[in-house]
Amino acid sequence: MTQIKIDARLLSELAREHRLPISTADAGYRMHVGLTSVFGDAAPKPFWIRDTDGQHADVLGYADQDKKSLQGAAQMHASSLAYEMCEWNRLHCKPMPGADVLEDQALSFKLRACPIVRKGSAGQGTNLDGETVKWRAGERMDAFLSQALSSGDDITRSEAYASWLRRQFDVRDGGAEIQSVSLEAFNLKEVTRRAQGTTMKQQTKPMVLLSGRLQVREPEDFLSILFSGLGQHKSFGCGMMLIRPA
């Protein structure tokens, strides 16, 4: 795990260099541009913007390189502005536990995620207002809306997102059993993504903070899922799961 302190003023300057609209580009997109400008392919992903005071942003991320290697990658890849954006005396790295340590471990977790699902086929359902909603095959949808429309049963966001999280492990060969999930926060967030060339597209996405407890079953599979992230927009500040002994 890597912890990086980012100068917010220089990040905004870098965003302008990349022609990002500062007034509308979301923090996750700006940080994605910032980290890749510094580290290139070695940029931590997924990452979590943990704190910002207006002058600095504190970023956690999973990277497969140590502190010396990350700084070396930046020295090779980054522009002067991008390199100066990182406070190198406040870069910290620690090794994550290996498969032998995690075997049968009970862990508590926190996860910031974008719980989106892709519809496998076209269909229609009735929303909470009794209106008919149609969708196309391959369309992306909030996991809560998808489950509510498909089942026709009353379901809470907490239940829907807990089911979504369990499926993230089930469809990727398990690795862990989710034992409990709580929905700590939810909001619909406007996010910015580059569509074509310099064109920017605004989208509304569900963002959640989940916490709970899990039991590691297959440590190597669990670590693969942990380091690759969960859900959508893993390059933009979503999908990082923080763990500690339960």
Automatic annotation (TrEMBL):
Organism superkingdom:
Bacteria
Q: What is this protein called?
A: CRISPR system Cascade subunit CasE
* Protein's organism: Salinibacter ruber
